[in-house]
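Morning run. Coffee first, then this:
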Amino acid sequence: MTPNPLVRPVDRLESALLVFVVALVLAAVPFACAFGSQTYADRRAAEAATDRRPATAVLLADAPPEAVTPQGVPLDSRAAVVAAWQLADGSERTGTISADRGTAKGTRVPVWLDATGNPVAPPPQPGDLVVVGVMTALMTWLGFSAVVGGAFLASRALLDRHRRALWDREWAVLHLRRTP
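And here it is:
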């Protein structure tokens, strides 16, 4: 196949760069997936190493009533309330936990305790860790693709500048040939 005389070397270079960029973006998919998978595994290992156990606390006071804006929109559905709970050794601990607003005194509320018996945040759901891993992979791939795409656009701008300079020279030569 004979090369098209209308396609200049700079046009061929741009086409080759585009093929290279597409290949790079596609090749980045397994690396991004591996990074997301490693993030998931690391988070899961960190959660497994966290020493938490479920317990039940009894509210020692009423939780504050629901708070709403003047437009009637609820502000925060949870509030800090004084409660008591039993530790693994049978002793009782009193402290502040988070409970739904409007919960009455004496209500039993599930809590999570650390190794020292202090309330901690509940462990994430297994699906939450999957979402973190998938989003990490996706954002890694998108970030890499944006950088590579930006580099391609920058190189294309330089190639366009070079093409315009070539056209200017060709027009100047054409103009000189027409001038008597």
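The chain has a mean pLDDT of 90. Good start to the day.
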